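Ops channel
N.P.: pipeline sanity check, posting one input/output pair.
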């Protein structure tokens, strides 16, 4: 159980922070940047939930919880339980990726195929979901970059890749099942 009885610790005043295994790294390290951006995705999902209702809000709540799991995964560089830890590191699981894929497929079956790229916008919820999509793509890029220099759980990368797809399809659903999507018109303002 997490207990936060004091919010500031002063331990980061010199530009370092503790990872989930207790090791200290620079706050600008690739690992901290990756999980910090996952936290940013979670904040954008919180904004999207202000405009969401019903099943969409419930799905976004699940995603927010998954994003905390993902942050916990990324903040632990050691992939195995160590002798000094009472519990194994929390890792993203293939089942979380599978759930996103099933939800994408369920939403997508109600949508007409695209014949143009979509501009972010339409309804308030769709606009927020597009913001979620772009920030999750950045989190994915940073996590993939981290994986070139340190070990990263493969399911974490897959989850981020599917998540941005989920946000894209959900944004179309939020635009009246795609009927109110704002389509790109190449060269329209020349």
């Amino acid at each position: 159980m997490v207990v936060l009885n004091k919010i500031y610790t002063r331990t980061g005043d010199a530009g370092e922070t503790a990872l989930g295994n207790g090791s200290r790294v620079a706050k600008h390290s690739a690992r901290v940047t990756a999980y910090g951006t996952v936290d940013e995705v979670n904040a954008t999902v919180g904004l999207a939930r202000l405009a969401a209702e019903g099943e969409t809000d419930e799905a976004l709540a699940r995603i927010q919880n998954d994003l905390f799991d993902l942050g916990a995964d990324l903040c632990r560089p050691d992939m195995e339980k160590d002798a000094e830890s009472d519990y194994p590191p929390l890792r993203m699981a293939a089942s979380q990726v599978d759930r996103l894929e099933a939800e994408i497929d369920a939403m997508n079956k109600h949508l007409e195929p695209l014949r143009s790229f979509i501009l972010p916008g339409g309804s308030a919820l769709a606009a927020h979901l597009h913001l979620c999509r772009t920030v999750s793509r950045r989190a994915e890029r940073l996590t993939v970059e981290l994986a070139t220099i340190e070990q990263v759980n493969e399911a974490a990368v897959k989850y981020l890749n599917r998540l941005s797809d989920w946000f894209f399809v959900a944004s179309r659903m939020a635009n009246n099942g795609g009927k109110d999507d704002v389509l790109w018109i190449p060269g329209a303002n020349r």
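N.P.: looks fine end to end. The helical segments are 30-49, 54-74, 94-108, 124-147, 154-174.
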